[in-house]
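stage 2 :: seqdesign
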């Protein structure tokens, strides 16, 4: 159906070209004919010529149309609306400026310059309409809210610590825990996913390395789950900061622009954001704060799974992944042992707990120690 429509359009354009321009050709070669019949022949000849041209060009034209359709479907209605509106305004301004130019008799100024003005003004109108979407939204929402409040003051922010937009970075989507956090209902406001983050995820998903490809696809799957389940509002940010090359710097600029909070699990990005006077929600910090607290003297039951760095140490892990270093734990490999906490150490990598077996000071009986020493001497 689409191919037929393209061919019909080619034929109609050819008929119009034949109607307007073939009479000039007949005048040049001095052919005289019945005017009514000549008009009919002009239309038919033009239509036939463009129909022949459409046969090799219909495939290329169809691909171009599909590409344009694909690009338009990616854009939000707000992007298309303001882009079209500002383009029309630019064309209207260009026409108004061109009216006195058309009345001049200077060849270049009365025909070429107006066309250039239309192209330039429409381009800048489109760019202004599509790159300042947040400003247009704020302007329209301010007018709408002002009308509703009948001149009363509008409260822009409910609280100093409240930020409406929670901006998701690439790593937090690949990590996947943001989906579980959203399902709990502890994250308020609107999730904002910038287009440059989406493009980076797509680039990672198309990578030649299998590990990167899996990570990128996981991030896209998490994003689709968040959008499809509609647990919290989620929006796409269509704008870009073309003068900023790095995605992390773009996130910081966007957070300042929309007064949002960056949600991430990137340790380095978290450090950089702290110097930029931008608020950040770090999932890793949240996970650390929710881990169960332990105090010296508390007892727990663990399974020693491997040897420690010191000669007689053993290593066990709690359910949340916290490492427990057990004194003399090598004598209890793959066994459950009740231990007493002696101290705890908090590091950037996580928390480490130091403990010793509860049933004795050394944590082993003399018989077990004697057996292991005998084995070592034989070796």
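stage 2 :: out
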């Amino acid at each position: 159906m689409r191919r037929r429509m393209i061919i019909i359009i080619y034929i109609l354009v050819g008929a119009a070209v034949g109607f307007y321009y073939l009479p000039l050709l007949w005048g040049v070669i001095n052919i005289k004919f019945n005017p009514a019949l000549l008009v009919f022949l002009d239309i038919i000849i033009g239509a036939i010529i463009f129909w022949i041209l459409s046969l090799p060009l219909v495939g290329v034209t169809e691909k171009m149309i599909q590409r344009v359709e694909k690009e338009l479907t990616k854009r939000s209605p707000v992007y298309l609306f303001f882009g079209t509106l500002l383009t029309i305004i630019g064309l209207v301004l260009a026409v108004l400026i061109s009216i006195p130019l058309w009345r001049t008799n200077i060849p270049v100024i009365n025909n070429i310059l107006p066309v250039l003005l239309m192209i330039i003004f429409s381009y800048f109108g489109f760019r202004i309409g599509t790159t300042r979407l947040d400003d247009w939204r704020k302007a329209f929402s301010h007018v709408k809210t002002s009308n509703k409040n009948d001149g009363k003051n509008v409260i822009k922010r409910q609280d100093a610590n409240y930020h409406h937009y929670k901006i998701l970075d690439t790593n937090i989507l690949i990590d996947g825990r943001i989906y579980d956090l959203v399902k709990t209902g502890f994250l308020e406001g609107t999730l904002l996913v910038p287009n440059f983050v989406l493009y980076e995820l797509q680039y990672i998903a198309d990578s030649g390395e299998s590990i990167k490809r899996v990570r990128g696809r996981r991030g896209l799957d998490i994003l689709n789950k968040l959008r499809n389940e509609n647990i919290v509002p989620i929006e796409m940010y269509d704008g870009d900061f073309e003068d900023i090359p790095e995605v992390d710097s773009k996130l910081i600029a966007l957070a300042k622009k929309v007064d949002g909070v960056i949600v991430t699990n990137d340790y380095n990005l978290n450090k950089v954001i702290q110097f930029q006077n931008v608020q950040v929600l770090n999932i890793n910090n949240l996970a650390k704060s929710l881990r169960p607290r332990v105090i010296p003297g508390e007892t727990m039951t663990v399974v020693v799974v491997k040897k420690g760095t010191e000669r007689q140490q053993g290593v066990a892990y709690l359910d949340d992944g916290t490492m427990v270093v057990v004194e003399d734990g090598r004598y209890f490999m793959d066994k459950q042992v009740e231990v007493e906490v002696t101290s705890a150490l908090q590091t950037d990598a996580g928390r480490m707990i130091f403990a010793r077996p509860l049933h004795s000071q050394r944590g082993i009986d003399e018989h077990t120690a004697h057996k292991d020493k005998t084995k070592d001497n034989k070796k």
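stage 3 :: structure notes
- The mean pLDDT is 79.
- The beta strands are 165-168, 190-194, 234-237, 261-264, 280-282, 299-307, 314-317, 323-326, 336-347, 350-357.
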